[in-house]
Amino acid sequence: MEGAAAPAHVETVDDMKLLRHDRIMPLPPSATSQDWFALGHRLRQEARPEPAFQAFLRAHELAPHDVNAARAAATLADGLKLPRRALAILSSLAATGKADADVLAMMASLHLELDQPSEALGLCERVLSASRSHREALMNRGVALRRLGLVAAAIENDRHLTRAYVGSPDAWQRLADACLMGGRYAEALAAADRALALSPPLQTAHTARGLALAMQGRFDEADSEFGGWSGALPPAPAGNEANVPDASSGPSLDARGVYLARWLQHQAICDWTQRKELTAMLRREFPPGSGRHLDEKYITFNILALPLTPPEQQSVARSVAAAIEARAPRRAAPLAHARDQRLRVGYLSADYRHHPGAENIWRVLALHDRSRFEVFAYALTPDDGGLQRQRIADHVDHFIDLSALSDAAAIERIAYDQIHILVDRSGCTDQNRQQLLAARGAPIQVRYMGMPSTSGASWIDYVLTDPWATPRSHEGTWDEKLAYLPHTLFACDDTVQLPQAPSRAECGLPEKSFVFCCFNSHFKIEPDGFAVWMRLLSLLPDAVLWLIDAAGESNQRLRGEAARHGIDPMRLVFAPRLPLSQHLARHACADLFLDTFYCGAHTTAVNALRGGLPVLTCSGVTMASRLCGSIVRAGGLPELVVEDHAAYEALALRLVVNPDLLAGFRRRLLDIEHSPLLDTPGRVRAIERAFEAMWQRHEQGLMPESFAVSVDEAP
User: Fold this and answer.
1) What is the Cα–Cα distance from 215 to 198, expressed in whole angstroms?
2) Are 621 and 469 in contact (CB under 8 A)?
3) What are the distances in angstroms from CA 209 to CA 95, 185, 250, 264, 285?
4) What pLDDT, in 10s, does the model give residues 332-389?
5) Are 212 and 221 within 8 A, CB to CB?
6) DSSP character for 200?
7) 655 three-state secondary structure
8) Please, which pLDDT band fits residue 13 given cuts at 50, 70 and 90?
9) pLDDT tens per residue across span 505-533
10) H or E element in which residue 264 lies
11) Which of the given ranges, 236-250, 314-328, 329-343, 658-672, has the highest pLDDT on average?
């Protein structure tokens, strides 16, 4: 009947579909709650969950205080993938005051299913205050505590669970998981052993045992426990930064990959306790030419902040690439798409969202010469509704969302578009899909920004770089050929307008003190560079170090490290994240940007220079450590690019004690808008000349070869 009110609890279209079963339920209007409950019981026994749910729901509506009817309806709703509906039913029961401990514990389970750990924890505490060893409440409490990052409390909770239910393999399994998350690997191994003693076939316990063994460096034993199981690691340590991906989401478990992924997650939150051992393990297990597969695709990116040489990075990258290639969908060799008038260039990226990569690339896409290039943007992530994604979509010829497509379908879509040059913008970073490139959907495949190291892969033909970021003497440590752009490879949005700078007081900074600054992501901060920063602070008792606020455990760890160096932890000031224009403007409140050593500032360096803040950087031997030097040189401050740590420290101190020298660098940045760094139109012309040269070689049947685009060729 039109205009009729929807029945209680209806929340979704799927719910409405289920309600259609009301029309066929053979009970008269006079039927009681007990009648509907009996019908629901019979329908459930007949394996007809949808009409059974409707019968139990009707029983609950007729008797809202009936615990059995509410639990039966909620259980079936949850089984039908309607957790919100299930929670609403139990909440209505709770409103009558009839919800017992089991109902509250079930509500906690539903909150966890809906990713609401705080609500789940509150319900569990209510149950446990009256019944200290309620099994389901203890189990749910442990899960909620882990999700909230309260790992120590979760471990203690699960220890109590095992004492209360010593014969439960599931209890011991949960303790093993909590100990794995908390880094208590020996206790995790012991708990997994207890679980397996009680239930030898328990696969999750075998996996937990393998993880514990892997984290203790017992790789062969761990691999035998995994036994080809496909799954993921337990949650990462609390505070893992968003731009440093949780490296636990690989398609299978490999003991060495597990060890590396977990300890690299610790590095991301500035836990350096295993840094030396981690570096040594990489060198030992993945020497050049090892041929070993490493089934953990984010490792190539996550090792960039370790003190590895280019050949060592290449060896690890090759191991990762080999594993990716082994899993990639098979397809015929890419068609040699004929070129009519325009080159069809596709930019493949996971960063078409609220991400620095989107801020940097949109102008490149917008400035391509449409008379010579047809531009496709392939998104690997779903629409976040943000302005950055919409701006990119508005400035390309074709915007294609591949996020919901299988690998095979995504590859076929790229091939269908007859892309001549496919540009990888993500590398092995967050939410990448390198397998799409491994399947060779385009005749020429290029990497540009996003990943400052070799892919180690045969499926990337070229990398766009520059002579400072990647000296020609380093070409042997790259599996790709190098296309050298003039000045710098880095492209950015040259249209951003800076608002008026805030005051130091507004930024929580002292008015008169020297302010060192490093807004790099915390995963780039490492003990060697941090020790230099602390020595500088010790020489300048009033100075402070201004860092980005990671809003997690790493803030506290960095302050703890400062204390170990004899520095007042409160001299580390953490800046909240702000919109880009406001972030750029606040750089004026700092005196000197100090770069990190092994993986330096990239977008953050551009931001600092545009904000009028001189950047001091040390170019090492890897592209990740040299790209900042390329940016600073293109920004007009080559004197601030040094090539050893001692020179970095000495120059930093010289700039502190010579304010006129530092002021001179700041004055030069007043003209940065006219520097090669912000000549984004010129950068795009150079990129286009590089693409033309690549395609010309391809048309001539020649293999890829390194080459340089001269300044004269890129007006």
Assistant:
1) 24
2) no
3) 44, 9, 18, 20, 21
4) 555 556 667 899 999 999 888 887 777 889 899 999 999 999 999 999 988 888 888 8
5) no
6) T
7) helix
8) very low
9) 999 999 999 999 999 999 999 999 999 99
10) helix 255-268
11) 658-672
- For residue 715, the 8-state DSSP code is -
- The token pair at 1 is 């009947």
Per-residue pLDDT of 130-159, as tens digits, reads: 999 999 999 999 999 999 989 999 999 999
Q: Please answer whether residues 250 and 434 qualify as being in contact, where contact means their C-beta atoms are separated by less than 8 angstroms.
A: no
Instruction: Tell me the residue type at 203.
Output: Q
The CA–CA distances, whole Å, from 97 to 64, 66, 108 equal 10, 11, 17
Residue type at 34?
Answer: Q
For β-strands 444-448 and 462-465, DSSP reports them as parallel
Tell me whether the CATH fold assigned to 343-484 matches the one assigned to 505-678: yes
Give strand pairing partners of 343. Answer: 373
Tell me the H-state helices in 80-184.
Answer: 83-95, 101-113, 117-130, 135-147, 151-164, 169-181
Q: Are the C-beta atoms of residues 489 and 338 closer than 8 Å to each other?
A: no
State the Cα–Cα distance between residues 190 and 209, nearest whole angstrom.
Answer: 8
User: Rounded CA gap, 599 and 305, in Å?
Assistant: 5
- Which residue in 145, 157, 152, 151 sits closest to 117, CA to CA? 145
Instruction: State the Cα–Cα distance between residues 635 and 97, nearest whole angstrom.
Output: 68
CATH class of the structural domain 343-484: alpha beta
pLDDT level of residue 69 (50, 70, 90 thresholds): very high
Distance CA 667, CA 538 (A): 28
Architecture of domain 505-678: 3-Layer(aba) Sandwich (3.40)
Domain layout of the chain by residue ranges: 255-327, 343-484, 505-678
